[in-house]
Protein 1
Amino acid sequence: MPPSDTPAAPARPIDTAALPGHRAHLGAGAPLRLDCGADLGPFTIAYQTYGALNADRTNAVLVCHALTGDHYVLDRHPVTGKDGWWERMVGPGRPVDTDRYFVICSNIIGGCMGSAGPLEPDPATGEPYGLNFPVITIPDMVRAQKMLIEHLGIKQLFCVIGGSMGGMQVLEWATAYPESVFSAIPIATASRHSAQNIAFHEVGRQAIMADPDWAGGTYHRQGTRPHRGLAVARMAAHITYLSEPALHRKFGRNLQNRERVTYGFDADFQVESYLRHQGISFVERFDANSYLYITRAMDYFDLARDHGGTLSNAFRLPDGRGTPVRFCVVSFSSDWLFPTAESRAVVHALNAVAANVSFVEVQTDKGHDAFLLDEPEFYQVVHGFIEGCARHRGLIPRRSAQTT
Amino acid sequence: MTTAPAAQTIRIDLRLIADMVAPGARVLDVGCGDGTLLAHLTREKGVDGRGIELSMDGVSRCVKHGLSVIQGDAETDLKDYPPDAFDYVILSQTIQAMRDPRGVLNTMVRIGRRAIVSLPNFGYLPIRLQLLFRGRMPVTERLGYQWWETPNIHFCTIADFVELCAQMGIVIEKTAIVDKAGRVTRRSPTGLANLLGEQGVFLLRRG
């Protein structure tokens, strides 16, 4: 990279203790048994809530964030200063209406914004876990969230909603705890991470591990951060979140601040400059080891394998009946990371147990990231689905009488 | 369901279908369009309703109004459902647009305890007269497409449909034949119904 595109100074590690938001200390009595066999506990989960829990505790909505997201759904981000990442979906009068619902979003375990993860101190040594943090899975993340929900005194979530990796958590919630979920909205996701997706993740991990500053994962000890490797990982991943038409519309082959190409390796093209910017701004707010852990968790996700190789079995109760959870599955036509066929496979499995499911493929050229962008049709569909569920759940919009 | 039409204004064949559905039943509406029938059944009969629709426009209108509808193709997506998943599987004015009407009928009576099919009668007298006197493919108010643009690729008459059911071992439990003025005639599906009925509504079960 040319000097102009290098961060002025390596971003400082995030001081997670100073971050705004709530913190739950869990697993002190009984630790969380992870899929890898290790026990996690005691451990911390950082989370945010919006709105108020009603007297019956029936209006809680859990928002599950994506790979590099966090719990700042609506707040200004404490590191980047940007708006909350899902303000189009969550807020007063939004589809997930914070005037009606009690919204919870936790930073997943393995993350780097205050929840237990490689950046946090290992209670045994007082030093950051680094690669001593146990390998986690999507079901582990959901088990930790279940402990948080119980800690908050909530027996059943009115809705669990999330996109991409958040959608995987939604599917895991609905299949692991069908009695604890009234409705589920998995968006732009899949019941398993495909070989192509694993391949892209491996490129990102190799970029991080090839950075000398990664130092075998112990960079926290020597005061470095593998920001070059992490930036490259982000750049590669970011391409998969877009679509060719969207990239072409935005940048085409336009040059960046120049009339002609320089016959060198400067960022001649706007698209290069854009990706470099994406990579650089990402390293400010994210931890490289967290990136390794979370991408691994997604790679391991395979709901059918966890249920005897048949996806529909995941949606069956122990007594053989179909799941009582009401589903709304959403995909985007230009998403090539989690294509519509993946969502359709989930819908077919739900049909096989005659579950109550809605499914819409939203027509857009914005690619995978469309679930975070301005797609009115998408928000209207989610709004309508949640309204319908609220009627079935008996959540009447009488704010003053309902909320505590 | 603020935009759903009032009960008395729904299409005659939809009203006849609704009359055949028991209150509180589990219903799948195949090709549910904008959800008019599902909304009516939910409101008037308290059914647990689902739908399948090909067009995104129809699906998103349904879901926006709180109906459970999936975007999909009946001929590929119905096969996943287990036997007796529904009390009624409904196919209104759509069988003529199916690539494989037999396959769809078979699936309907498998996954539903009952199936309800409404269809336009190609044997209806004015249609026969159009073909006879004008020598042109009939275009009517109900079948408003030119031959080169129509989604309707498998037209049949009431007599054809009754014959197919008999062949497939499907029992017709009830029939309603509707004339041009929207009046329900008491005719049996055989005989003059095939000449004077503009459309037929059939309640079916596997034999």
Note: Chain B touches chain A at residues 48, 50, 56, 59-60, 62-72, 77, 80-82, 85-86 (CB under 8 Å).
Protein 2
Amino acid sequence: MSTTSTAPSNARKLAFAGPSRVAAWLGDQVVGRFSTLASILAILWGTFILAIRPTSWTRPVRSVLARQLLFTCVDATSVAIRFGAAVGILIIVQAALWIDTLGVTTDVIAPILWKAIVRELAPLLACLVVIGRSGIAIATELATMVVGGEVEVLDAQGIDPMTFLVMPRILSMVVSVFCLAIIIATSMVVTGYVIGWVMGVIHETWMTFLDGIISEFSSMDLLFFVPKTIIAGAFAGAICCIDGISVRGTMTDVPRVSSRSGIRALTAVFAVSAVLSVLIYGRLLVFKIL
Amino acid sequence: MKESETSTVIVNKPRPKVLELRSVTLSGKTERTGGLLDVSLLLREGEMAMIHMERSQSSRAAASMIQGLTKPYRGDVLFQDSDWQGNDFSRHFRMRSRIGRVFDGQAWIANLNINDNLTLAGEHHGRDHKSMHHEIALWSKQFSVDPASRERPAFVEPSRLQIFQWVRALSCHPSLLILERPMRSVATTWLPALVRAVEKLRRRGTAVVWFAGSAAEASDDLSKPVLHFRWVDERLHPIADLTRSPSRSDVDDMPEDD
């Protein structure tokens, strides 16, 4: 009797165990993602509030920001130029192929390439450079400071780690992505022109080519370029800082946290870029949604 | 008549409280972390508590609790009648800026040089640049170290580094001075200089909590009132007379710090 009564119960448990476990896992994932997003937005909001408060900008904080800008932006200029040049060459090769295949002139291709560079490629490449060079370094530095007790030393002296450590680093990431994206875009265009001219694909003079690009530049380009660089840079900076500060354990945990932070920041940059593209273009892939 | 009455009132008025622990329980995370069990302590301006520890004990968690960095499991910690509760972090940071501390263990920002480390807190809290540098120079001269050192902490020998910690803690005009094993890595010949410096601050009204790593730190030159405690089994046992107490032998037997 008892066997017959418990059998359906067990069967039901088995039947429901799989789906309920999947549902629980999905629920955990969704809650986890929202929680991560909330903490990123909270850090960014805190950074904004601290940045607009004049009392935050004490001499040590200004010094940290200057040093971080030097490392993240100025020192990365040569890398950005090299990246831009390399991608510029790839683009001009692609342009030459399209011109041959489609039988169109450079006048048709140039605006498309220019928009692709300004709106998508340059911000994305700048984020890659900043995350690869500085984002991982920031996560490592902050994690080392936490594990080594340096953050406690700051705290004990009445120095807010958020003001002294996090805010200048996030701001430097934002400024650096913006500036490096301009440098990368310029490097792409210049390299593209030089290679195209040498290969005989471009027949215009530099001034004519430049005039063409300037005439192509519209306020819409700014609308794409500024939010993409600033928001993506802010997200990358916030993620690297959060990962660095929230490390628990010993010094051996630091490399793991750093590499994870780099991947998370890259993922966030791609996600932010995609979301902004959807919002700005009003399209999801080829479908018009807005 | 009125003047004398007024003066009498002022004389009888107890000195302001600086640090008060009310039935504090702090759980030690590890065996080395010094825990506290239902400990109460009151320090007024100019008073001093010397807590004698065993070599294996660490005062870091307790000192951090006094500064509001670690929450006690139970009880209240008050600094100048203000607690560390709530989310008013600006107030907490301002309170901490009035506490000087010699850390047991990591005490420096590794990527700043010694000079930047010494001036960091003062500059961040908007202290007058000239007076701050003047004070650092004075304390440094007293302890025979160069305050303008451009070396990073990792490249400075431990004894000098420890003395720089004294300079940093003393030069921030602290209302409360926390000394965690201040004689660690330092020759005992430096003790009288440290005691003189601490006494100078006490005369200005600074309360002092001294976590002593060695019995030798209980210098006779320290002016009264000095409350001596032995930190055993998570409790602070008062030592009424350090010279006569039976526990003195225990204290004497404590090994010297490295």
Note: Chain A has one domain: 68-288.
